[in-house]
# Entry
Amino acid sequence: MTDAPALVDALHCTAEGKLCTPKDARKRARRLSIARGHLDSIVRMLDAPEVYCVDVLRQIKALPGALSGAGDVVLRGHLEAYVATSAMCSDSVELVREIMEALRYR
# Structure
């Protein structure tokens, strides 16, 4: 039989020192690499005198989507790692506060 307090302690029911889950590191890195690629492309395009402005605008439009994808990975990791453990700790006030805080940046 599982000892509930030990399980709660093992799940880190506080946000202190809590970072995004390492299992998502490759997904986050990939998404941010895509965003960096769009940004680098925009910078190169703006330095080229023959660039077509609509092509630059297309790349600029793609950048928020790439960053949003990275944000989705981070948010999912946060919800899985911290918010779910707060629910196990029966800390509903903290759970709601934490979700509202995370959604503020979405």
